[in-house]
Fold Integral membrane protein.
Amino acid sequence: MPGLAPWGPSSTPGILEGRTRMQGTVDGFTYGLVTPVAAFFMAALGAALGLRCTTRSLHTTRSCRIGWLALGSLSIGSGVWTMHFIAMTGFTVREAPISYDKTLTFAGLAVAVVMIGIGIFIVGYRGATRMALITGGTITGLGIASMHYLGMAGMRMAAHLAYDTPLVVLSVLIAGVAATGALWAAVTLRGALSGLGASILMAVAVTGMHYTGMAALDVHLHLPPTLPADLADVLPRDRPAEIIGPMLAGPACFLLLAAVVLLFDPRVMTGEPAPYPRVGHRPRRMVREGAARARYR
């Protein structure tokens, strides 16, 4: 598969003239297990909120359904985007500093929200039918994958990025299959444990897709032939946490606010349908008022 070359010919004047290409030393776990665990937690949080909103939409009026589904797509999309860039704080290339194009970075957030929104809107309005779940899950998985590779295209470094095609295909399949399973579990099973399982399954879809996609990546550096062998002593060290941290503040705060909103309706977190009044049932106060009116007629 052709690699992505994020640097144009005029982006690095002088350094690309007479350049040589060498394999970059990639570390996807610079901070050990801290970033994968934190990334998985954020993906699970966004999935828990979004899937519960999707479930809640099935048991509400059509006028309220769009609001629940919109909140669900924003929650899952924000969780996916936040997960990606938390994981990317642990990604470094020893020989080259990394920066990010803000336009492509935030475009990835928009793509995730829109495509995931389409997927859960299909399930929310068509119900838990086989076709709706397969279609909605596939579109949701494609949204997750699109966000990842758009975010990778937004990376800026003096390097050429290439991808292993079979691993890229596998990463997309992981996202689609796991997202479909998560939607099925969310809308067909009931109870807190099933909701937790659906959230974990969606988080597996997101993080599994991410790290499979990262395993498909090869970094080929563009370097002048005169640089010394130990490039770590001459090139500035990148600090991905300082670059990415401020960008994560907005989506992370949104997820926390969404969690607070949903806590006001415990049925959302347990997946229980909203209670409907029994046919022919009237509250006691209405019965007493009716009896009083009849007495004075």
Remarks:
- The radius of gyration is 24 Å.
